[in-house]
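Good morning N.,

You mentioned wanting to compare the apo and holo forms, so I went ahead and generated the holo version with phosphoenolpyruvate. This is what I fed in:
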Amino acid sequence: MDKLRIRGGRPLQGEVTISGAKNAALPQLCAALLTEQALTLRNVPRLRDVATMRALLERIGVRVQTHGERGGLTLQAVEPLDPVAPYELVKTMRASILVLGPLLARCGRARVSLPGGCAIGARPVDQHIRGLQAMGAQITMEHGYIEARLPPGRSRLRGARITTDMVTVTGTENLLMAATLAEGETVLENAAQEPEVVDLAELLIAMGARIEGHGTRRIHVQGVAALRGAEHHVVADRIEAGTFLCAVAAAGGRAHLRHGRADHLDAVIDKLLAAGVEVEADADGLTVASPGGAALQAQSFRTTEYPGFPTDMQAQFMALNCVAQGPSAVTETIFENRFMHVQELARLGARIRIDGRTAFVEGGQRLSGAAVMATDLRASASLVIAGLVADGETVIDRIYHLDRGYDQMEVKLRALGADIERLA
Ligand SMILES: CC(=O)N[C@H]1[C@@H](OP(=O)(O)OP(=O)(O)OC[C@H]2O[C@@H](n3ccc(=O)[nH]c3=O)[C@H](O)[C@@H]2O)O[C@H](CO)[C@@H](O)[C@@H]1O
Ligand SMILES: C=C(OP(=O)(O)O)C(=O)O
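and this is what came out, ligand included:
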């Protein structure tokens, strides 16, 4: 099993290119199911989740071709399609639920295993199901599978006003995709405003969908009878960029993050500026400069939906808070079990106490390298950041979690001067 070995203590210097966003690319790959014409995506990141999604789509019957150009994929969902997402393919990836809406809209039926993914909470999909039911789908749960179909005599979903109980990112995306081919108007209330939702809406509009209000809490969709092929460039990964911002902040140094989008990272950048980090946007990305974690001031924060502080950056910023000066309180409001990195950070010398949904970080700790275990994707990234500042050697086991969502993280960090290598 792959591990990462890091020898900490080196500042980071130079330039890295931020890849396309995992959480934008995955729904966009599923959008290929909505048309029989070819969909070309550029800037698709090289990730394990993308490979898993490709395998799932191929299993359903989508033809997928890789372009010579980096990150180019063309997908074509020509009939016959087999609208089944089997357990073996969806168990490792939350985003596999995103085939449900498109399959139902296109094929009138779908059989999708309940998804897996990071074990950061119970993560039910009741809002996806309720929304599709409001659009006329008949849905039952059998043997761990969601069995969805249109009622006899109907060939399309019908538009509906849907208010989700909470803001859900993939829920919004699933219902948005389903609504593009429904009869009549769908209104999604309490919709997610994340940049990945906006990027998906822009792709769907290029495919001929009639969508308004994406990026706000209310999205209007006028269903159309068919969508066409399109070409689209996947938006840069704000979480990858945020992770590198925290890595440079903690390790010290100066780096340019090519293609990084400051406008998608306001909440994180505000906290970094308050901590004493310099962050500047330019035409082609972001520059970050830091005197190193020990010279920074720890920051309290609370995760919320976009444009608030992203839950997917909580673990990485917490690693920074461990070495920065002063106490901080980190409150996780999105997922009920997203502090699994705390125990592993403690092995490196961090002092953190959890009380309910808040982690109280003591700050000002000198971390020392140790063997640790990655428990989920962003927990892995937080351990990498901690390893970069720790004295001596840190070995992170179960690094496959990191590969789900980061495109060659160790290669990029090495380019910045980090002493990091993958052990087979
Ligand atoms: C592939 C992808 O894009 N993953 C992102 C997506 O996950 P994902 O879309 O799964 O997260 P949601 O926004 O749906 O989850 C938000 C909260 O709502 C709850 N919930 C959600 C749906 C539902 O039907 N019922 C329900 O109770 C969840 O358990 C969670 O507590 O948004 C999360 C929140 O920004 C990010 O951490 C993930 O990286
Ligand atoms: C939680 C995440 O991913 P997923 O929703 O795919 O499990 C993440 O990207 O941090």
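The longest strand covers residues 12-17.

Happy to go through it together on a call whenever suits you.

Best,
F.
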